[in-house]
Specification:
- With about 260 residues, the chain is mostly helical.
């Protein structure tokens, strides 16, 4: 399995590639060559499709979308139309990649019914005992493992890499010992499943912002633009998501030796 450093490198290379297509897309748009425009645009969309697929999978499992009605390609098709018609909004190649996420996010927001989240879970996360966490995970698995990883599109390295998960939760250097203990005693699959379970129960804005930052390597400034939020709001959501995940790891596995 590739490690997190390799994943980061590939993400950076993909962003560079997406930006490099911008000037060619400008020319094609000016010429009115929509077919060629869309063919080139398609090459920049793998990460956007992953984002759409993840959002749809969670919405389906929470009952916020009817089963069988929507597929990721439905949103990609609409994205082509929107991107072509509004391409003039992009002022430079640096803004192009996050702009595509913004379109995808708006299309999803217009379709997915606003979900309810478990406020009791969020407010009392530091009070859960290990048996309570174990029971919650059993129910989570029985109900379909909220992230619906059976979807073929969700093959991203980030969904299974334990260091990737832990390094984005325990961001302070003084947490290295805790990361090492969890890594040794718990294992990759348990770490991934626990993180996914906690994210599944968090408020939608918090979960979405955290996943944009960690799985798609978008900056807080880019997320603020995509989501139409202030930078401070995004930073607070990121901090709260990390705190919730960190607390959940500590409370479930306190006393690890």
């Amino acid at each position: 399995m590739e490690n997190a450093a390799t994943y980061y490198k590939k993400q950076k290379e993909f962003r560079i590639f997406a930006a490099s297509t911008f000037s060619d897309l400008v020319v094609l748009k000016k010429k009115g060559e929509e077919k060629a425009f869309n063919e080139l645009l398609l090459k920049t969309l793998p990460q956007i499709k992953r984002y759409i697929t993840k959002r749809l999978a969670t919405a389906l499992s929470k009952g916020n979308l009817p089963h069988g009605k929507y597929k990721p390609d439905d949103f990609i098709d609409q994205l082509f139309i929107t991107a072509y018609n509004h391409f003039h909004e992009v002022k430079n190649q640096k803004d192009f990649y996050p702009w595509l996420f913004k379109i995808a996010d708006q299309l999803l927001e217009d379709t997915i019914v606003e979900e309810e989240f478990d406020e009791v879970f969020f407010q009392n996360i530091d009070d859960f005992t290990k048996p309570a966490w174990d029971a919650m995970e059993e129910k989570f698995s029985t109900d379909g493992d909220g992230d619906l990883v059976m979807l073929d599109e969700l093959d991203d390295i980030s969904y299974g890499n334990k260091q990737y998960v832990l390094n984005h939760v325990f961001v302070e250097d003084n947490n290295n010992e805790m990361i090492a203990k969890l890594d040794k005693k718990w294992g990759e699959e348990n770490i991934r499943r626990h993180a996914n379970m906690v994210l599944y129960h968090l408020p939608l804005p918090m979960r979405t912002v955290f996943e944009m930052a960690t799985q798609f390597q978008l900056t807080a400034e880019e997320i603020a633009m995509i989501r139409g939020q202030s930078l401070e709001e995004v930073q607070i959501l990121l901090k709260n998501a990390r705190n919730a995940l960190e607390t959940s790891f500590y409370t479930r596995y306190r006393g690890i030796n």
